[in-house]
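chain below, 122 aa
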Amino acid sequence: MSTERTTDGSSWFKSSFSKDAASCVEVRFTPGTVLIRDSKYLRDPANPPAAQPIIAIPAMSWPAFLALALGHAVTAPNLPTLTTHPDGGATLTSPDGTALTYTQAEWIAYTSGIHAGEFAAA
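prediction:
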């Protein structure tokens, strides 16, 4: 897994299946919460880093979210809605309306990482 140290000492990471991709699903485990962002946002210099859309999932709901990402029907509190696209991409929409949209390659790399156990610990 690739990591990026953030200013608070925690790490954002992506699936090893993303390799050197310029954009990917990124995850960060924090106490009690798992954060998800889209690396494409920061690649655009016009986007202010402080406004980056991030979806927060309670750690207790993280296993259900991973099952949802793999296409299983699950119910858990505060899960984002997952919409898969005909082209194989996906959009996550949090209960507060924050949306992250991923390409087919990004979503396949992420779900491959889930299958490999790279995102299991919360």
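Residues 1-9 have pLDDT under 50 and may be disordered. The radius of gyration is 13 Å.
thats it, cya
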